[in-house]
Amino acid sequence: MPAPPAVRGSPSALDRALGVGEGPGPVARFLGEVAPDEVRSAVRRCLPADGTDPLVHLVRAKLKPGRTLTAEYGVVLGQNGRERRLSVTWVARGTTPPGRSAGSEVEARRRGVLAPFRRAWVATDDGRMTVSVAPVDEAFPQLVRLHDRAHLLAVLAGACPAAGFDDVATNDVTVETIRYRPGHRHVLRVVVGRDGPAVYVKTYGDDMGQRTVQAAARAGIAFAAAKNDAVAGPPQSAGYAAADRVAFWPEVVGLPQSKVITLSGAAAGDVVRAAGATMKVLHDAGFAEELPSRPDADGQARETLRTAELVDLLAPAVGSRMRRTVGRVLESLAGLPGETPTVVHGDFKCDNLVAGGSRVHLLDFDRCGRGDPAADIGKFLADLRWWSAGDDALAARLHEAFLDGYGVLGPTRAARARAYDALLQLRMAARRVPVQDPEWEGRVTRLVGAAEATLAEERR
Questions:
Q1: How far is CA 366 from CA 161, 356, 363, 421, 428, in A?
Q2: Is 106 helix (H, G, I), strand (E, B) or coil?
C-alpha cells in the first residue's frame, strides 16, 4: 500500500501547547480550538473518498510538557454510525513520534475489522502529529484478533463459559472500545444484541491478567465466607486466555458508587458503609503472602511526584507546594509505627464499586497485592472527597459511614490513613483535572490546598 498522504498541522500553536512558562492556557486552547480540525482532517485521509464527515470528540488527554501531548478521541461516522477510537500524538521538535503498526494493520485488514477505514495510521507533513486507529497496535497484536467476532466467541467459550455467550451468532455480537491506548492497555466491552449479556475485555502484555483473575477469585471466597449482606458479592466468574493474554469480566449491573454519590449525596451512606465492610474483609483475608508487594510509602510518594511534574511546569508555585506537602506526608508516615502488610486492593475507589441496593460489587483487581492497609483506606477517603466536589460536610458524613462500615481501625492505622489521604488528594489533583479544562490551575490550586489542610489536621 502506498504511504498515507500527509496532513497539515499548526506548528506554532503546538509549540505553545507543548512549551512551558505560559501556564495551562495554550494547551487548553490547542485542544479546544486547533486539534479538532487537525484530527478531522487526519480521519478523512484514513477513510474512503466518499465525502464522509466524521464527528470527533475528545475522550482524554495527557500532556508531558516539552515532549508530547497524547489524546484519545471517539469518532462517529454518519448519523447511525458506531463509535471508533483514535489515539493522537503530537510531539515537540526533535522528538520521535510513534510509528506505524504495519503488521497489525495488515492483520486488521485481513480479518475485516479495520473497515470502514482504509488505513490505520497517518501523519502530518512535518511528522509532529500521528494518528492511530483502533484496533491496531503492534504492542498488543491480540487486540485485532479480539475484534474478530468469530475468534472472540471461540476464546470466550473456552475461557469464560459462565458469561452466557453459548450458541451466539457472530452477527449478534458488538465490540465496543472503552479504552484505546497503543503501547499501554486496552479495554473492550462485548455485548450480545441490545439487552443480552456483556463482558469487559482487558488485554495485557504479560501474565498479569492471570494473576488478577486469581486474586479476584481468592477475594470472592473471603467475601462469601464473611456471611454479611453488606460485604461485596463475590466477583462474577472471570476468565483468562493465556494465548491472547486477555481477561474477561462479566458485566455487573448497577451504578458506580461515584454516580450514587453524585445523585444522592449523603443518602449514599449505605453503599459507602458497605464499601468499608468490604475493605475490612479484604484486609483480613489470609492470602497476602501469595501476592506481589505493592509500593510502600516511598514508592507512593514517588508516584505522586511523577504526576506532579505537570503541575511543576504549568503552575510552578502550586507544584512547589505539592512537593513540600509530599515531603511532610513522608515525615508523618516515618514517625508512625508500621504494621504487617495485608491483602490490599491497590485501587479502591468509587468507580471500582458498583452499587446494587445496599450491597456493592468490587471491581478491578489489577493492583491487588501485599501492602499497607492504610494506603487503601487513605485512597478511598481521598476519593470520597473528590466526589463530594468541595462539600466538606458531605465528605465528613461519607467518611463517617465508610469508617463505621470498616469497624475498629486502631490509632496507628488511622493516623497512617489520614497521611495517605493527603498524599492521594495531591495525586488526584495532578491526575484527574483535565488539562484542557480552562479552570485547570484554579481547580488544582484548590485541591492542593485541601490536601494541605488534611495533613495539618492529621498532625494536630
A1: 22, 23, 9, 21, 19
A2: helix
3-state secondary structure of 178: strand
Place of cell 479544562: 437
Strands 353-356, 342-344: parallel, antiparallel or unpaired by DSSP? Answer: unpaired
CA-nearest of 408, 417, 331 to 373 is: 417
Residue among 184, 195, 85, 79 at smallest CA distance from 131: 85
Quote the pTM value. 0.93
Please, what's the b/e burial string for 432-442 (b: 16 or more CB within 10 A of its CB; e: otherwise)?
A: ebebbeeebbe
Chain centroid, CA 381 distance in Å:
18
Please give the grid coordinates belonging to residue 346. Answer: 491497590
- 77 forms beta bridges with 54
In whole angstroms, how large is the CA radius of gyration of the chain? 23
Quick one: pLDDT band at residue 445, thresholds 50, 70, 90? very high
Cα atoms found within 13 Å of the Cα of residue 398, Cβ hemisphere only: 31
Q: How many CB atoms lie within 10 A of CB 14?
A: 25
394-424 residue pLDDT tens: 999 999 999 999 999 999 999 999 999 999 9
Angle at 59 between CA 15 and CA 314, to 5 degrees: 40
CA–CA separation, 155 and 161 (whole Å): 10
Set of cell numbers at residue 13: 500553536
* Whole-number Å distance between alpha carbons of 109 and 118: 8
